[in-house]
Design goal:
homodimer, mainly alpha, Arc Repressor Mutant, subunit A, Tetracycline Repressor, domain 2, 2 domains, globular
Chain lengths: 198, 198
């Protein structure tokens, strides 16, 4: 792999920095993530697929996680979520997480790309693999490690919020779908707090 | 409606009690449930669709809930679940529910019809409506009423177990997918117990 006569091949087929270079990188990223999954996809491989220099990919996207989030049009990246969770009193972490998830999913324009990704993960094995690798490696295992909590507990918390969001916005179960944020924080906060306690 | 010249029309187009009468009723039921939803579907309407006498439908299926479960090939009906939940010490209800859900979903032949129903509810609005009406009216609201617990709390518990089953069997998140039942009972039991406490 590393022995391929690299530099001569690296000449881009399109002008670097052209108006839609970022869009072309994202199109290539979606293709590579779908084909290889999140773990095996590389910035280098995505650059090759987009026919641009890897440095240009790094210019637009700091991390593979950020590129995945952008490619899937996710409104928020793990790099943004994790500090919000950790920043504040540990004993309010459950409540903080519930508020964050409810806030991010309240607006259709931030919710719909996530629901779309989950829908494809529910009905397509390849999409499920991609989603699984992303959600565990980029989010759940990171949170577990930072908090010193077993991964299983973090996944139980993910399952609770996943079920609430699906019940609220996809299945539209009442009264869950109309419940206000404060009511849900009171109901779900202690559950998440317990799962996030070592 | 009730004024239609009923009896003369009720003559079945197929022999009552023929080898696959039950199968024909179920085919008709799937069609009627999909078209009208769970609430508006009636035994009479399903009998008409199947071209059999309503009494014959009642001969095969005691309740509309039972017919829905059979039509969707669900391995268990609310009429069976609710007594299991209520039979036993109230302080072990959370644990009992977790065990029941894990047991019913452990075997592929009982799990897969449920997952199929959920998948279609996640991707199709009509299927979502049918699933929503069934799960709320036939199961969640009944449990809430019998236990004297707010519906929202019962739905939070449903969301927890829905997320666990999807995480375990569809998204296949590790370590959740490989966790054993006892580990999950210990982790999730107290959550359900709290939601099922008035």
């Amino acid at each position: 792999m590393s022995a391929e006569n690299g530099t001569s091949k690296r000449r881009p087929g399109r002008r670097p920095g052209s108006a839609d270079t970022r869009g072309e990188i994202l199109t290539a990223a979606r293709r590579v993530f779908a084909e290889k999954g999140f773990d095996k996809a590389t910035v280098r491989g995505i650059a090759r697929e987009a026919k641009v220099d890897p440095a240009l990919v790094h210019h637009y996207f700091d991390t593979k996680e950020g590129m995945f989030a952008a490619a899937m049009q996710l409104p928020i990246t793990p790099d943004e979520v994790i500090p919000v969770l950790l920043d504040g009193p540990r004993e309010e972490l459950g409540e903080r997480l519930v508020r964050l998830v409810l806030r991010v999913t309240a607006a259709p324009e931030t919710r719909e790309p996530m629901v779309a990704l989950i829908r494809s993960a529910m009905t397509n094995d390849q999409a499920a693999g991609m989603f699984r690798e992303f959600i565990t490696n980029a989010l759940l295992y990171q949170v577990a490690a930072r908090l010193g909590v077993p991964q299983l507990q973090v996944e139980a918390g993910f399952a609770q919020m996943f079920g609430v969001i699906m019940g609220r916005y996809v299945l539209k179960l009442e009264p869950l779908a109309s419940a206000d944020h404060e009511e849900l924080v009171e109901l779900l906060g202690p559950t998440l707090q317990r799962y996030f306690t070592p």
